[in-house]
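In this section we turn from sequence analysis to structure. A common task in structural bioinformatics is to predict how a protein folds when a small molecule is present, because the ligand can shape the pocket around it. The inputs are simple: the amino acid sequence and a SMILES string for the ligand, here zinc ion. Study the lines below before reading on.
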Amino acid sequence: MKRAISVALATLASLCAAAEKSPPLQAGAAAVDISPTEFPLNMPGGFRGNRAEQLHDPLHARALVLDNGTTALALVVVDNLGVSPEVMEEAKALAAERCALEVDHMLVCSTHTHSAPASNTREGSAPAVAYRKRLVAGIAESIVQAQAKLKPASLGAASHPLSGVVFNRRWYLKPGKMPPNPFGGMDKVKMNPGTSATVLDRPAGPTDPDLTILSVRNARNKPMCLFANYALHYVGAVPRGKISADYYGEFARLMPIRLRADEDFVAMMSNGASGDINNIPFLVGRPPREPFEQIRIVAQKAADTAWQAYRKIEQYQSAVPLGMMERGITLQYRKPNAEQVTRAKAVLAIKDEAERAKLPRLADHYARRTLAAAEREDGLTVKLQAIRIGDFAICAIPFETLVEIGLELKERSPFAQTMVIGLANGRHGYLPTPRQHTLGGYETWLGTNIVQKDASVVIVKQLLSMLDTLSGPGR
Ligand SMILES: [Zn+2]
């Protein structure tokens, strides 16, 4: 009798422990239109200015909120080149005021579409000021709406490769083909060096073809939300002056069809570690496309791949441990030496047109960036986040992160499946690995990259330790 009671008590205790560990999951998702309504607007992302005059397709802030009773967190994807940390912080604070979520349990990332307005413009025009407001309010609203929609849910994760649309854009060139860099030196590799076989030798890095999804279903097992991630910088070729969410928007539009989902279903595509990955098929060539055609082609392939991944999920879980950690780490600014400063000043002092024509491409632009870098003081504190959703993990990095960093995190993560999101919680330029720094090229240039050359090593180490903590016992 006594034994029976103790067994019964033990069973009860383990049931309580199980319930405490994994309370039932609730989820909610929402998409809020953040398209600009006033024009013109500055669109950053190219070396030539680009004024937005017209909307081609809408921009959104899309949010997924997960809540298991002990932990609640929000994942937000914003159609923008790179929302500034200030705008993101304002939006998070506004959302926290309006719903029961903590600001350090919100991951906000940008898709990196190159055809969206600047987020934190200094131009001060009425449309720019209005857009900043709309962006802050829209990001916050997406979180508030998703949180308000919380209902019982289950989730699963999977990935499936899509290799034909991602290419490493940094290349070694044939002897004698490398042009001088803007600083007058010679790099070992070049970004986007054209597609000629007489120029191209071999790519300087890998790609990551895995499209990863987190799929959320409601209590009736109908799709509620699909949060995707893919390491592709963007597709682009958007006509000048037009606003577009690039393939991220088209992917979100197609996914409800792929999954036969109801109207309130929300899909979102976040940007992976794609700083050196684009959609140019070097050495292969591609027939000419009409505007937006290539965006649609890539979106269709990505949607098909997400559908393949979706079908791989065998088991959905409705009781999952959730965890989220945020760390501010301080990195040293990368500074020019005295010789680099002298050269930059000399470049900017040249007034004679014939002399200026002899300068390397973008010499002026990077001379100004060199002088700006010399002025920077102290370090830059950036935000890293790690999230646990059952046996699935997310790493969030506020840089245009080169692909090897994403691959390393996925490889070394203690979780069954790991997603690496770039341009999350801010945008602080490119993040190359120390190896890529030794090769040179656009992503490593002083001014394109603004932090210490081993920043990626520091960041990977931090994120892995955060993942370890999240995966540890008691979590
Ligand atoms: Zn970029």
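The chain is about 30% helix and 25% strand. As an exercise, try to locate the residues that line the zinc ion site and compare them with your own expectations.
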